Amino acid sequence: MAHKLTIEEIVKKVDRKIDSFREAEFYRIDFPEEGVPFDINQALALELSQNSIITFTDKIIGIAKTLAISITLFFVFFLLFNAKAYFEIMKDDVFDLLTYQSERIAETPQQPPEQELIVLSKDPSAQKQQFSELDLAITPPDNRLIIPSIGKDVPIAEVDSAAITDPNWTNLNDDILNALKSGVVRYPGTALPGEYGNT
User: Fold this and answer.
1) What are the sequence ranges of the domains in the chain?
2) What is the tens place of the pLDDT at every residue in 104-147?
């Protein structure tokens, strides 16, 4: 069978509970000793906490905890949402560092290999036999459009720009169609290949 609490024990329990909360103010009923009559309105009293410094420090600690949690969450989410950008920056820095190290290694002085001088014959026909022919691709003198992925190497045809000012546009169309037979056409008035402009 459970122990039945007296009024004093209940009041002490309530006091301990209130003290553990450490509120700035609280209501409490002070019961008199047994047999002493009392008025409930007088017994109900507003009492201040016995130690206001403790409640003030508790509030300061609570504010500090809230601020610490907020700042921590801010930085966590900030880094989470910007992780890719910071990774790219770090990757570039690491790449620059590795490149710098490889450049330093490449800059170390090395002994040039010894080369033997070639003795040339004074006879021009003998000189032709001493050296093999150079395998160089001959580049055409005109402007060309080269697309290696599809194996195309076509000339860029020019159309006379005077056809633009001509009020008869059919002449310009005919000139462009005729030029298309020899390659791709640069529209008159646009920038030349290799120049900045409206190509």
Assistant:
1) 1-50, 52-107, 144-186
2) 666 666 777 777 777 777 787 777 777 767 666 666 677 888 88
Question: What span, in angstroms and rounded, lies between the C-alpha atoms of 173 and 161?
Answer: 12
Categorize the per-residue pLDDT at 53 as very low, low, confident or very high, splitting at 50, 70 and 90. Answer: low
Interhelix angle 52-81/83-107, rounded to 10 degrees, is 60
Give how far the C-alpha of residue 42 lies from the chain's centroid of Cα atoms, to the nearest Å.
69
Per-residue tokens: 164: 């633009």
Q: What is the DSSP string of the chain?
A: -PPPPPHHHHHHHHHHHHHHHT-SEEEEE----TT----HHHHEEEEE-S-HHHHHHHHHHHHHHHHHHHHHHHHHHHHHHTHHHHHHHHHHHHHHHHHHHHHHHHHS--PPPP-PPPPPPS-HHHHHHHSPPP--PPPPSS-EEEEGGGTEEEEEEE--THHHHSS-HHHHHHHHHHHTTTSEEEPTTSPPTTSSS--
